[in-house]
Amino acid sequence: MTEKPLKVKTPIVLTIAGSDSGGGAGIAADLKTFAALGVHGTCAITSVTAQNTTGVLKAFDLTPETVASQIEAVCTDMEVRWAKSGMLASSEIVREVAKEVRKHELSLVLDPVIAAEAGGNLLRKEALSVLAEELLPFCKVTTPNASEAGALAGMTVKTPEDAKVAARKIADLGVEAVIVTGGHLDATDLIYEADSETFTRVPGTFVKGGTHGTGCTYSAAVTAFLASGEDLEGAARKAKKFVEQAILRSRPAGRGVSPVNQLGAVLEEKERYLVLRELKDAVSILEGSPDFSKLIPEVGCNIGMAIPEADSYEDIAAVEGRIVRHRGRAVSVGCVDFGASRHVARIILSSLRYNPEIRAAINVKYSMELLAACKEMKLGISSFDRAEEPENTSTMDWGTAEAIKKYGSVPKVIYDKGGSGKEPMIRLLGGCATEVAKLAVELAEKIQ
Ligand SMILES: Cc1ncc(COP(=O)(O)OP(=O)(O)O)c(N)n1
Ligand SMILES: Cc1nc(C(=O)O)sc1CCOP(=O)(O)O
């Protein structure tokens, strides 16, 4: 009997929303979010907007029948339990969506989209009361920001206290839970659950970056997490973190507000995994070499590698506790992890500013013989002199930059002859950790 491969069932979710030709908000944001969070996204388009990062120029609403047919097509074929709605444009579309939600017993997360932040109405004025009275009562969750909460509750929301009052008023319209997002208040989201009459705060941090599509991304992430089995608080916490990461990873696009980057957060996780794997291989190369231990300095050796676009110690993986010599062999003291190095990490961070391709480095023991071997291998060599270091600088930062400037580009080898209480050192730099590990082993084999 042949075994069938085990397949995990992927939740299928639906977004009922408008399209944004600029690719930042609406269904583009929703589908990217669903993909990033590992659920299968389907869509029913309500309106086609001619939009970019500076605002909505025009909107072409589809007929309610067109919206309904899309929902029918998806829900009669696939098992959809969780859905979200975004731009619903008109009273007619809102009513049609309410009908479909009831018919297919969808658990709906309603993002009460009223206008684009950069400018442009996305819901006709008269449709707000229809949304509040005819759709909201059939929703599980709604995710207004401060101004949307104010519009739904018929008040102004300027403080976290106002948000509490508004959340209760919105829940009185019949929705099971209200999350007032705090991006425009104090960065804390407020969850109100109607049946238990409880408030839960979800604190966050204001992060810098493009924010176009934030509201859509947040509600899509809440939907994806709920569909994946999270409870409401878990979904809200995870969605908030996801949006913060997506803002941080945003890329400049257009003349207005840049779109968030939903895949950035996920791709970074993958990069971190690849760097750790690469570094483990590099450590195995060093530990497996009978010669490498000769190159370990008194202070120990470390090898590090950065994720692309690294800008802090936490973006550089290295060996916890460094690599030391034990019974004539190289032995790593701890595991490989991000944030485990200061010296080697600073060398990498400094050289990244000159060449983003050079993402790895290792420090080895200084000797004339080793330098001669580097020359023999025709490696680019440069150096710095600690005696010339200005006050109040980091030696690794300054020294690396000095050596690079002197050489004209990032060399393979940077050495210094030490200083008072400072051991002389050679650093080998390269594109990845296994490259510098192999180079170190090759050099070790050349010397006595
Ligand atoms: C087609 C479309 N739908 C929704 C919005 C609003 O998006 P949101 O995520 O609230 O983000 P900003 O408009 O604030 O960037 C939209 N603009 N277009
Ligand atoms: C102490 C020391 N100095 C180095 C230099 O290159 O001058 S490398 C080094 C050891 C590695 O340190 P870490 O674990 O902080 O990267």
Automatic annotation (TrEMBL):
Record bears the keyword Kinase: yes
EC class: transferase
Cellular compartments per GO CC: cytosol
A biological-process GO annotation: thiamine biosynthetic process
Gene Ontology MF annotations: ATP binding; hydroxymethylpyrimidine kinase activity; phosphomethylpyrimidine kinase activity; thiamine-phosphate diphosphorylase activity
Superkingdom classification of source: Archaea
Span of domain Pyridoxamine kinase/Phosphomethylpyrimidine kinase: 20-261
Keyword DNA damage appears in the UniProt entry: no
Keyword tags: ATP-binding, Kinase, Nucleotide-binding, Transferase
Domain Thiamine-phosphate synthase ThiN: 278-441
Positions of transmembrane segments: none
InterPro entries: Aldolase_II/adducin_N_sf (IPR036409), HMP/HMP-P_kinase_dom (IPR004399), PM/HMP-P_kinase-1 (IPR013749), Ribokinase-like (IPR029056), ThiN (IPR019293)
EC numbers: 2.5.1.3, 2.7.4.7
PANTHER family linked to this entry: HYDROXYMETHYLPYRIMIDINE_PHOSPHOMETHYLPYRIMIDINE KINASE THI20-RELATED, PHOSPHOMETHYLPYRIMIDINE KINASE
Protein name (Swiss-Prot/TrEMBL): Phosphomethylpyrimidine kinase
Provenance organism: Methanosarcina barkeri 3
